[in-house]
Amino acid sequence: MDEYNLFLLVLIPVLFVMGLRIKAFSKEGAIASAVIGSLIIIGGGWLYFVMLFLFLGLSYISTLAGFEKKRSWSLQEGLKGERGARNVLAAGAIPAAISLMSFWNFNPNLVFFLYVVALGTILSDTAASEIGSLDENTYMILTLKPAETGINGGVSILGTAVSFVFPVVFSLLGFIIYGVLGSIPLGSLLDLIFFSGFLAFIGCVFDSVLGETLENRGFLTKYSVNFSSALFATIIAVLVFLR
User: Fold this and answer.
1) Suppose 215 and one of 99, 101, 159, 211 were both cysteines; which one would form an S-S bond, judging by CB atoms 3.0 to 4.6 Å apart?
2) Is 215:222 a contact under the CB 8 Å cutoff?
């Protein structure tokens, strides 16, 4: 491990305290995020950590959007939007595992692509849930019947829009940095940006389908739905990359 990664590991306790102070995490959630962050630094290094930090920033912006309105409807996470340990582990387990693939002889472009897709899927779902819940015109994703705002499997025009825009912006920023560092041809870079953003959006759609069909029937929890959607998007991403 180089000195840059060691420096980032030293920053983890600082970020732990910051996450608690801004109410981004509960105490247990902050501990879980510190573990996930450490694994990502060890596996992927500084760029993977930067992408994690960007993911957290965009997720936090989504959480703050219309927060008082969401709280009046009891649609916020926790008491003040904070994420608990189960939220963090469901969202971070797959990205952390992907970052650790860097220890083996995998194509680095593939590893980073999968990482962006997995994180992007969770970001897409977070934006759809947090910002989309501000749109009172909600419909079930499969039947398109009008539904209560915040219901599992419910979608809206606003939620669908942000669930596409957020992962695309996330992918764009990540691959601009990655492309500069790796001198990737522009055509390949544009493909990676488009497919990673689009597949993250598809993962979010799959999340909503699972919400309507399995979560509402008690077969899955929201945490297992989040994990499953990120895994689904990652598997599709492997097939797309190797096409």
Assistant:
1) 211
2) yes
Question: From edge to edge, which strands make up the β-sheet containing 154-155?
Answer: 146-147, 138-140, 154-155
- The parent domain of residue 18 ranges over 3-241
Distance separating alpha carbons of residues 81 and 31, to the nearest angstrom: 17
Smallest CA-to-CA distance from 95 within 153, 35, 13 is with: 35
**SS3 label, residue 234:** helix
Report the C-alpha gap between 43 and 84 in whole angstroms.
24
Q: Identify whether the C-beta of residue 184 lies closer than 8 Å to the C-beta of residue 194.
A: no
Name the stretches of the chain with pLDDT < 70: 1-7, 66-82
Cα dist from 41 to 69, 163, 202, 212, whole Å:
36, 27, 27, 36
Q: Which of 46, 44, 19, 48 is nearest to 32 (CA)?
A: 19
Residue type, 8: L
Q: Residue 83 forms beta bridges with which residues? A: 25
Sign of the Cα torsion 210, 212, 218, 222 reads: positive
Task: Provide the domain count of the chain.
Answer: 1
What integer pLDDT is reported at residue 136 of this predicted model? 82
| Cα R_g (the chain), whole angstroms | 17
pLDDT tens track for 57-108: 898 888 887 666 656 655 555 445 567 888 889 989 999 999 999 888 889 9
Three-state secondary-structure class, residue 105 = coil
**Checking DSSP bridges between strand 138-140 and strand 146-147, what pairing results, if any?**
antiparallel
